Amino acid sequence: MICTLTRKISVLVVSGLLIAVIGLVMYCTFPIFMENEIKKRLVLKEGSQSYSYWKDVPVPIYIHFYFFNITNPEEIWALTNKPVLEELGPYTFRESREKVNITWNENGTVSYRQIRRWYYQYDKTNGTLDDVVTTLNVPMVAAAMRGKQMNEDMVFFALEEIFSQLNCSWFVRKPVRELLFEGYDDKLMKIAKTFMNLPYDKFGWFYKRNGTDDGEFSAFTGAIDLQKVDEVDTWNGERNVTSFDPPCNIIKGSAGDMWPPSKSHRDHVTLFVTDICRSLSFTYLATTDVNGITAHRYWTDDKQLDNGKYNKENKCFCPEGICLPAGGLNVSSCKFDAPAVVSYPHFLFADSVYSQGVIGMKPNPQEHRMYLDIVPEMGVPVGVAARMQINIVFEAVPNITQFENITKRIYFPILWFSETAEAGEDIVSQLKLVLTTIPLPFYLLLERSATNAGF
């Protein structure tokens, strides 16, 4: 009886010691195991779980366009009133993204081009693509602003004569389909194309962009350093853009498909945006739920488009040291020297000088700011809202008759867009499965050890 009891106690002691040793080993090795498992799944390489998500983005992406229709063009021409604008839209398109020419490089990066295509969604549109919009005659205004910049009498004379011969007006009336992807014939552009290297033969905000790419990206795969996964190394072979002064010209941040995994939220995440030739920083807001999966929400704050007054780091976004009022980004050097200014929709967070020039702006932080919802353990975005407004500088050009009587500069709102994506329940289920299966081998091993010990 005593021997039997002693034997049982010995077994329990040995088993307890064995469990303690196993627990200690697991405690020390589990973080390494987890890191290796996560790395194996998240590193960009053919066959990894992240590769298919990265190559052909499965989350449905929609882009919603809103135009500002000018309701009082005669009053503006007569200089008797500000522009009165009404918002039309949204005009919605489904966006697909496909990475092509994928090349794996020896320095731990992958090079590729991303083809984007847009498909009209009539059921998600308020109106039709045949809606006619009264909007600014951008080719005419751009030519006048370019002439002002050149400041040569011969140029002023030529532009005034051309404007007169073509009977140009400050405004045009065009259907949405032409203003977006189809483009419209413009006599001024045809004349300019005879002596200038213009890239297009028609004018449209997204003319000839459907089915094209934004250049060649080279991004880190995470194989060498997982904390750099999907971080842009070069764009079109360069690590800097020519649009801004240093250090604002540095290309940094994610290409937008993934971010490094993290256990807790980061202070901010960074995204490189080709359309404005710069990176944007998103600050942490809160934990949120996207169709059943926990994500960290990051959004752009009111200092993102500051002119350097509050955020000194933004001073180098001012070309030749000339800064716009806070809330607007001069992208002329990024967009063929067009007098374009990018802001948040309805001049959200912008200096009052922008909205005071027109009537009809109704900024709303919930509808007009940008955000990213990222699953921290995987660095995968499950919710996105990218929102920007395109404005054109409209001001006096003293040496051109058609522009000499304009009394004050106006940052003329043309359109704004909201590019949104949200992972549905099917994609969320797949992501949750990945999250729950990462530690499964550990728990199986622990369970097997406990069973073998007699528990």
Q: Can you walk through the features of this model?
A:
- Strands 1, 2, 3, 6, 7, 8, 9, 10, 11, 12, 13, 14 and 15 form a 13-stranded antiparallel β-sheet that branches. Strands 4-5 form a two-stranded antiparallel ribbon.
- The chain is elongated, with a radius of gyration of 28 Å.
- The chain is built from 11 helices and 15 strands.
- It has helices spanning 2-42, 49-55, 73-77, 138-150, 153-165, 176-182, 187-193, 352-355, 365-368, 425-437, 440-452; strands at residues 61-70, 85-104, 109-120, 132-136, 171-175, 212-220, 232-235, 268-273, 278-290, 293-299, 329-330, 340-343, 371-375, 380-394, 410-422.
- Residues 440-455 have low confidence and may be disordered.
- The protein is an alpha+beta fold.
- Helix content is 28%, strand content 29%.
Number of strands: 15
Whole-number mean pLDDT = 88
How far apart lie the N and C ends? 23 Å
Uncertain spans: 440-455
Radius of gyration: 28 Å
Brief descriptors of the model:
single chain, 455 residues, alpha+beta, 13-stranded antiparallel β-sheet, two-stranded antiparallel sheet, 29% strand, disordered C terminus
